[in-house]
Structure formats: structure tokens, C-alpha cells
Amino acid sequence: MNAIPISPISPTSASLSSTHAQPRHTLESLYAHALSLQRENKMVEASQSYLALLQHAPQHWPSFYNLGLVFQSLNRLPDALIAYQRVVAIKPDFAQAFNNMGIVLQALKRDHEAIDAYQRAITLDPSLAQARYNMALIQQARGQMTASTESLSAAVAANPKDDQAWDALYRALLGLRRQEEAIQTFLAWEAAIGRSPSLTAAGLAMSRYLGDVSKAHEYVKLAIDWPFDIAAPEALAPILGMLQYFDIDGKDLFKCYRRYDEATLKASPTSVPTLPRRAKGERLRIGYVSGDFRRHVMGRIMLDVISAHDKAKFSVHLISLCEPQHHDKTTAAFRAVVDTFTDVSALNDLN
What is the pLDDT of residues 165-188, one digit of tens each? Predict the structure, then answer.
């Protein structure tokens, strides 16, 4: 889950009074140009334009606010913090600036100050769902799971269309083993949102838990047809995991894997060379991927299976998802009967 900043402020004449000889319409034009650069993701140029404007209108808090967002996107966090501090010095009742300030402080590992900023934002604007959601994230990071569910409940009450907050609340309740509340949250989320990638993943799991065949068909169809933009890989991964428990056509499942592959390449566009085709008479290469090449029920079963491979015909390669501290005598036995054993536990799907 990621903290949610609040978007740039559109052109406004608020505080656009120059301390120099620049007329107001010139300053408004400079502000519109800077905002246009920001929306085009030309962040360096946008920062330069906002700074040029602020030389003539040092009390123009919308420019400081947008400049803070620009600096955040450039990962210039200390500069972003200064920009937001200037905003609240000029306009101390601007809750959105305190929200974004909290995100920056949290990224700088200044959690106590981040909490104060989020609380200030919520006090100024109790309906500010982003601040409540961000407060929940920091509470979860500090192990305050019950408090985080309260913040997330308030976030979805403030903005029932906040799909990310619903998802976080649902998963937090499951983590606390508050199953009945998780079910009610899922049903309320379903009613509020209709459908989304994260709701599809939850729907696949919940339809099996509830034994609801019609709901299972509905969410399997959503997963296969996918009437959404391509989601991030981390949103698609649980859907792929859940689909293994449903009776679906292999072609449909393959289509879902291709979608995941497309999302992964989009997020991390690296080219991985394929192995050369086998020469005639060369052993058939077989790869197994698992987190259970160790003392585990699947490990014990698969050790016998893999040991039985005819080494004259098969080249066997194991790819382990298990962290090295869990390797044991069974792991050593696997290593002894295969051609290669590769530990990829430190990697994610993008690297």
C-alpha cells in the first residue's frame, strides 16, 4: 500500500499579488505554465517555473503547495518538506498540505512528526479520507493494527469510493482474524465500488469462503475478461494465485498469465534472453519453482519425485523461493540430485 498525496491546485488568483513590478495577469500566466509542465510530468522544468514565480509572489501558497508535490516526485524530500512548511505558515488551515507533509515526514523516518501532521489534517478536515488512510499506514507500520482498522473505517466512511482504503480495511480485518467483520466489509465494498482489480481478488477468495457459486462465476469471469486497465503486478498476483482453485479452461488461465507478464514488463521493461533451443539428443531441461525445497510435506514428496528423474534424459533445475535461513538437510538433499539449485528468495517479480 502506498500513502496518498493530494493533487495539484488548479490556477487561482489567491495571494497572487506581486512584490515586484510584474502585473497580476503575467503571474497568472506563469502559474498556468508551471502547472501545465507539472501535469506533463516535466518536473524539473515545473520546479524552475514555480520558483521563478515565487520570486515575484512569495506569499502565493498554491505555488508552494504544487512545488512540494513536484519535489516529492523528484524525491527531493527535504525540499518538499520546506515547501509544505511554507504553505501552512501562509495558510495554516489548509489540511491537504498537512497530509502531504505527513507523507514526506514518514518517508524521512520522522514518524512522530508524520503522525502529528496527519492528526492536524484530520482535525482541520475530518472528511479528508487520504489523511485517515495515510494515518492507518503508519499505524500498521508501528504494529497498531486495531487502531489502523479504525482509521481505515473512517476513511471509507469519508469516501465510500476509495477502493484502496476498502482493500486495506478488508485485509487488515482478515489479518486480525475478524472474519465476520471482513465479510461485512467485503459486501459493503462490493456495493460501494461495483468492481475493481483488488475487489476481484477479494471476490475470488470470499466466494469460496461463503460457498457462493454465482459469486464465484461472477469474479472468475471478471478475472478472465478483465474490463479494467492493466493493473500493477502486485494487484494481479493474488488473482493468479486464487484462479488455481477454480475449474477454468487452460486457455483462459494462460490469458491471465499473459496479462500478468504484460504488467510486469510495463513496470520493469527488462529483456530476459531465452535459453537456446535444445540440440538433437540433448537432455530435456525441466525447472521446478517452489518455496518448499526443505523439511515440509511438499518437500518430502517432491524429493522422491525429483530424485527419480532419469539423469541421462533430463536436466533438472530448481529455483527456490525459500529464504536461506530456512534451508536444511532436505534442501541439501535436493541440491545433491539436480543439475542446478538457484535461490531467488531475495528477488521480487520485477527484478
Answer: 999 999 999 999 999 999 999 999
- Taking the C-alpha atoms of residue 146 and residue 167, their distance in angstroms, rounded to an integer, is 16
Listed as own residue / partner, the contacts of 181-187 with beta carbons closer than 8 Å and 24 or more positions apart are 183/209, 183/210
195-237 residue pLDDT tens = 999 999 999 999 999 999 999 999 999 999 999 988 888 889 9
Q: Which three cell numbers stand for residue 143?
A: 504494529
- C-alpha cell recorded at residue 80: 518538499
Rounded to whole angstroms, the Cα distance separating 121 from 99 reads: 6
**How far apart, in whole angstroms, are the C-alpha atoms of residue 232 and residue 254?**
18
What own/partner pairs with CB < 8 Å and gap ≥ 24 does 159-165 have? Answer: 159/127, 159/129, 160/192, 161/192, 161/193, 162/129, 162/133, 163/189, 163/193, 163/196, 163/198, 163/199, 164/1, 164/4, 164/133, 164/198, 165/129, 165/132, 165/133, 165/136
At 20, list the grid cell.
515586484
281: left (phi over 0), alpha (psi -120 to 50) or beta: left
The grid coordinates listed for 171 are 485485509
Sole residue written with cell 469460496? 208
pTM of the predicted model, to two decimals? 0.75
Burial (0-12, 13-18, 19+ Cβ within 10 Å), 23: exposed
Question: 111: Cβ–Cβ under 8 A, 6 or more apart, which residues?
Answer: 105, 138, 141, 142
User: DSSP 3-state assignment of 3?
Assistant: coil
Q: Is 337 exposed, middle or buried (0-12, 13-18, 19+ CB in 10 A)?
A: middle
Residue type, 44: V
